[in-house]
Amino acid sequence: MAEAFADPVPVTLNGKPAELPRGQSLLAHLVARGVDPARVVVAVNREIVPRARWSDLYPAAGDRLEVVHVVVGGASPDAGLEVDHDPLVIAGVSFRSRLICGTGKFPDAATMAAAHAAAGAEMVTVAVRYFDLDLGGRSLLAELDPCRYRLLPNTAGAYTAEDALHMAELGRAATGTNWVKLEVIGDKDSLWPDVAATVEACRELVRRGFVVLPYTAPDPVAAVRLEEAGAATVMPLGSPIGSGQGVLDVASIRRIVGRVHVPVVVDAGIGSPSDAALAMEAGASAVLVNTAIARAEDPVAMARAMRLAVVAGRLGHRAGRIPRREEATPSTTTAGVPRVE
What we know:
The chain is α/β, with parallel strands linked by helices and about 350 residues long. It has nine helices and 15 strands. The protein has two domains: about 60 residues, Ubiquitin-like (UB roll) (Roll), CATH 3.10.20; about 250 residues, Aldolase class I (TIM Barrel). α4 links the parallel β11 and β12. The protein starts with 8 loop residues before the first strand and ends in a 22-residue tail after the last helix.
């Protein structure tokens, strides 16, 4: 047996050159490295391999192996806090909460869990990343209860439509959901989306049976094209990802709301509760907030503040604001005012 393992098999493992023992199955290799097979998904040459085949799969020279999991990248709501009889409906699924949360950048898992509870979140995003085979890793699924939250794998880090499609398939295999937050980045500095590639990837993912929630530019034309491609929502950015600059082009959000029939979710750039309220007042169906909560001095308090702001903004939008005027107008009639003659 020692002789059978003497000549290693050269492969690419999680993007890096590696050598695997010859004659050792994929399952045996994972177990030998202390990896729980139930916590990961494996693709060989970009084809996702069902776990039932791992014991019979022997990597060949030149194979590209990817071992991935989802990583950090609703609680019971307060009575009467959410807007009654006004659910957010995406692809036929109803949500009471209109605040979607991220899972990255929190100082620890306990803070993340407490913040999600304070936010009243019912949907959270998760990222697809390589599993650290040397350290054993810890899957985010161990920290998130899929019965409590709808997991939304995202394709963050994809710079081509092809990469986004591959990451979406890995995310579906890792989480068991066909929902995906689609991101295809066109510029590394601003993280601005590549709209053409996003539309292309959206169309193909819908064909493959995914429910697609695409991140896009605050562009009404792009929003219409994504809806035509089958998107379940459109998710225009408020400002660059993680910048905290707020909603820089409120007029474009209003235009998008007026042109598409699917929910509009303002994603990226929210920095404060007033930003979230502004997006909702503009007619957005929901907002997605990660950095502003996770990096706040008190993430749990900020999560609750964001929740209140989203509810207030939604109520304000439904109530209908007064028109803006150039001149002042008295709030009380001037008729009958006592005067000294």
